[in-house]
Amino acid sequence: MVETVSTPAMERDADARFDAVIVGAGFAGLYLLHRLRGMGLAARVYEMGQSVGGTWYWNRYPGARCDAESLAYSYSFSAELEQDWEWTERYATQPEILRYAEHVADRFDLRRDIRFERRVTAACFDDAAGEWVVETDRGDRARARFCIMATGCLSVPQRPAIEGIDDFAGNLYQASRWPHEPVNFAGQRVGIIGTGSSGIQAIPVIAAEAGHLYVFQRTPNFSVPACNAPLDPAWVAAFKAHYREHRALHRRGAGSGFGDLEIEPREHGPAAETAAELSDADVHDILENYWNHGGARFIGAIGDTLMRRETNQLVADFVRAKIKATVRDPATADALCPIDHPIGTKRICVDTGYYETYNRDNVTLVDVARNPIERVTPTGVTTRDGHFELDTLVLATGFDAMTGALQRIDIRGAGGARLHEAWTAGPRSYLGLMVCGFPNLFTITGPGSPSVLSNMLVSIEQHVDWIVDCLRYMDAHGWVRIEPEQQAQDTWVEHVNEVANATLFGEGGSWYLGANIPGKPRVFMPYAGGVGPYREICDRVVAAGYEGFRFAGA
Ligand code: N01
Asked: Could you tell me if the CB of 160 is within 6 A of ligand 1?
């Protein structure tokens, strides 16, 4: 065990020694630091932002809020914290979630081990010493037995390669790198590129303020209403009185880890397992019920929506009918109806007044699939059919998801093997936790785990707890090195693919597959087997003496 090193916040770590280096101070990094401290280990966290919060630190765009419900999207590790913290809305806003992350950092005194405004550039395993050597862009160099990547699944923005974009003379903003100071759209001509979750949340809020908003849409997405509302204190009190049981349901559920957190209806599973045995009227009633209830759970209303094409078609038709009933201009409504992918195979968006926004006189939808963007000029956006003069251009163009943050670090494992090369054909891992050839390197919510298909807080806590138990196990047995076996990794990758292939996900052309990044291998990256079954697999691996992992002593 390494003695705690105290480096003043602005000084560089010069060959400082720790038990573990953690990369990232989002929800994963914060909880991990807290747990490692609890084991008496010395840990250093490097974080790119000026403060904690990860995705909620960076994504400050107008309208940003969580699409998971507040009482589920929160830490469960401290009963006091979960009782004390008061969420105000069913879906918390970005500022509220950031305040929560800041509160956790202060409450558990985490900041003193975090070095901010540091981007980790390299992490190399020193075979002889059995240590990771981690370097930052500010010249820090730290050595640690364990290196744990808490780098987030959606932390590297994707800036589109549109000709002339850097010459735009107005205000250019990227949704996921939004300025900290207020942005004023009043009276302006604003353009936004991108209609994924970020764009769909930002568009109604920007439209309410801008002089005119031009939405440059290449591919429409399915969106369901959030039906957000202030939380009823009596309902919250009743929920909190049984928090432990609720949390257990979130963790053990077959789906994405939101369990029973529904205000109405309170079913714990889908309303029906399959549409095959239902009349069209029954399907419609179920969907209407979930639609009116709001939220992403709509996609789970009928159990086989992501497995059976016919069910998927019914659900997609229902949403397309809603779009057409909401948007008054038929041509705009048509252009907003997704037809290129099965519903749910791209992350379903959750909105507040998105489709209604297109009924405003100051909003124009520009279909850039038909009328492609040719270039950005200093004064606006030029498409094949015309030019749009703009004062402000917003990019809501997504992320290099799941592998982007890891691939941007020069990670070298045993014998100098590069992660970049090991993952040329797509990410390969054992359980999404470790990679063959990279001893003592863990990834929190890495590719091959439920991660982005789940309630991230549930998955983060599960991975952190698993890693902490593993480190205790190593300590108890005198092991200093852990690495997955090749066979175990290959079998797991095969299983991840098999589960994905039984769904319609492969047809989504989504960032889940890396399809939004030119040249990125098309591999379905998250594990689609559900958080409960995944947890059982991880627990079984432990019960079998960490089956599939190889340990070594000093
Ligand atoms: O990114 P996206 P996002 N020209 O990749 C378009 C999470 N999240 O930031 O589909 C024109 O979904 C692109 O068009 P196309 C959530 O998991 C959560 O919105 O490639 N358009 C697409 O419309 C989510 O899924 C929350 O044709 C271009 C858009 O940009 C994930 O983050 C909130 C283009 C990118 O959509 C990513 O969402 C926000 C170009 N050159 C995000 N390049 C909540 O919790 C890209 N596009 C609520």
From this structure: yes
Residues 6+ apart with CB under 8 A from 128: none
pLDDT by residue, tens only, the chain of 554 residues: 554 444 556 689 999 999 999 999 999 999 999 999 999 999 999 999 999 999 999 999 999 999 999 999 999 999 999 999 999 999 999 999 999 999 999 999 999 999 999 999 999 999 999 999 999 999 999 999 999 999 999 999 999 999 999 999 999 999 999 999 999 999 999 999 999 999 999 999 999 999 999 999 999 999 999 999 999 999 999 999 999 988 988 898 777 877 655 544 444 568 888 999 899 999 999 999 999 999 998 999 999 999 999 999 999 999 999 999 999 999 999 999 999 999 999 999 999 999 999 999 999 999 999 999 999 999 999 999 999 999 999 999 999 999 999 999 999 999 999 999 999 999 999 999 999 999 999 999 999 999 999 999 999 999 999 999 999 999 999 999 999 999 999 999 999 999 999 999 999 889 999 999 999 999 999 999 999 999 999 999 999 999 999 999 97
Q: Which atom of ligand 1 is nearest to the CA of 368?
A: 11
Same fold, 14-156+400-548 and 165-222+344-395: yes
Distance 175 CA to ligand 1 centre (A): 10
C-alpha triplet 355, 452, 349: angle, nearest 5°: 5
In short, whether 363's Cβ falls inside 6 Å of ligand 1 is no
Please work out whether the CB of residue 218 comes within 6 Å of at least one atom of ligand 1: yes
Sign of torsion over alpha carbons 541, 547, 550, 551: positive
Structure tokens at 430: 């054992």
User: What long-range pairs does 465-468 form, CB within 8 A, spacing at least 24?
Assistant: 465/35, 466/433, 466/538, 466/542, 467/32, 467/148, 467/433, 467/442, 468/32, 468/35, 468/36, 468/38, 468/39
| Top mutation candidate among 348, 516, 520, 525 for ligand 1, by most atoms within 8 Å of CB | 516
How many Å apart are CA 109 and CA 103, to the nearest integer?
A: 10
Ligand 1 atom nearest residue 66's Cα: 45
Question: 113 C-alpha to center of ligand 1: Å?
Answer: 34
pTM of the model: 0.96
Ligand 1 pocket, residue 67 CB under 6 Å: yes
Cα 534 to averaged position of ligand 1 atoms, centre (Å): 27
For β-strands 392-395 and 171-174, DSSP reports them as parallel
Q: Whose CA is nearest to atom 11 of ligand 1?
A: 218
Domain boundaries, the chain: 14-156+400-548, 165-222+344-395
Q: Is the CB of 219 under 6 A from ligand 1?
A: yes
CATH topology of domain 165-222+344-395: FAD/NAD(P)-binding domain (3.50.50)
- For the four alpha carbons of 432, 396, 365 and 69, in that order, the dihedral sign comes to positive
Specify the CATH number of the domain 14-156+400-548. Answer: 3.50.50.60
Q: Is 157 in the pocket of ligand 1 (CB under 6 A)?
A: no
Q: How far is CA 161 from CA 216, 381, 395, 441, in A?
A: 15, 14, 11, 33
Quickly tell me which residue has 């589920």 as its tokens.
72
